[in-house]
Amino acid sequence: xxxxxxxxxxxxPGCKGNIIHLNNAGASLMPQPVLSALSGHVELESRIGGYxxxxxxxxxxxxxxxxxxxxxxxxxxxxxxxxxxTRAWHAAFHAMEWHPADVILTARSEYNANMVSFLxxxxxxxxxxxxxxxxxxxxxxxxxxxxxxxxxxxxxxxSHMPTNDGLVNPVEEVGKIAREHGLPFLLDACQSAGQMPxxxxxxxxxxxxxxxxxxLRGPRGTGFLxxxxxxxxxxxxxxxxxxxxxxxxASSYKIADGAQRFELWENNIAGQIALGEAARYAMAADIGAxxxxxxxxxxxxxxxxxxxxxxxxxxxxxIRSGIVTFSHPRLSxxxxxxxxxxxxxxxxxxxxxxxxxxxxxxxxxxxMVRASVHAYNTTxxxxxxxxxxxxMARQKDTGLPHANKNNKASNTSxxxxx
Length: 418
Prior knowledge:
- The protein has helices spanning 5-10, 32-48, 50-56, 58-72, 85-93, 112-125, 142-148, 171-180, 200-203, 229-232, 269-285, 287-305, 333-344, 358-362, 379-398, 408-414; strands spanning 20-21, 79-82, 103-107, 128-132, 153-159, 185-188, 207-211, 223-227, 245-249, 252-255, 312-313, 323-327, 346-347, 349-352, 367-372.
- By secondary structure, the chain is an alpha/beta fold.
- Helix 9 (200-203) links the parallel strand 6 (185-188) and strand 7 (207-211).
- The chain is globular, with a radius of gyration of 22 Å.
């Protein structure tokens, strides 16, 4: 099936203005059906009341679980709605019973927030986390992973697409190793959900966390957790309420069956309905067709930027995503992001390099510009970005004014990596 590019743009209100949106790894532009689902339910709440609107929208709420299950080739009882990918990841990670000296294996490209959680768990529980070496292309070394598994290993964690490396990790190989050793495998699919086809059975993961706002093109404040049916009963949530458990007697309770155990009673109903619509929209648009277009746009952008007027692209991996990261030796990343936004209405984001990436540290690169494409972007938009970058670099070299270096607050508010 070929991608219906014109429909993608026609369905996207943000494409009708003068903004060039290349911050899809931060938050994509919502298509009209998603926007209508979100605003429609909020409007219904305003007219008849929040509880009453939820009761009237039972089918739409239930449809969220079917949509996410279809997106992942899972089952609706394995899906939980949460308010972010981070909350979903924490719900899975902290549902495990940790003991001193338990070992977690993860990659050097693991997401910053996940690394902070490992450090926090080490402080609280005495666990260990070990970084698996990279291969020459920057992806996780699966043979090293296999060799590092020991009797104390309790979990494998991996970001499918790191936040600023451009690479795609070999998750199927990791899943095969996890299955061979009977280990749970927590996959952070924050950037890959909606960008490329995901099949949890083929991947072999145990749990998946993802957000709605990125490549799925859902609203902010939405996310989901998928947990394999065979593992759900082994996971005890760190927080329970009357949604995730039943109060059976004055002194007893029963945790809910299925992934509902990870949810709380109060949540963003409008966001949940809209995220279900976003998943259906992505599948109808054909993620399998959008994925190669995203890759081709990103490949073209890397070629246009790398080596041009001093710019360097820092992406790795044999298979690469729609995330393109670059820097300039005489222009700060924050300065570039602010200039692109204020002078050219081009949205990009500021991305901090991973502390574990020694090669970037050796080159003095602490922050990069992240430009992330979606299937609705055009080659002319990429050309506009490159022209703006070239002009900025040349102005820097000639000493002409180009941006406000002291506008630090606005730099960070435009789009800091998430």
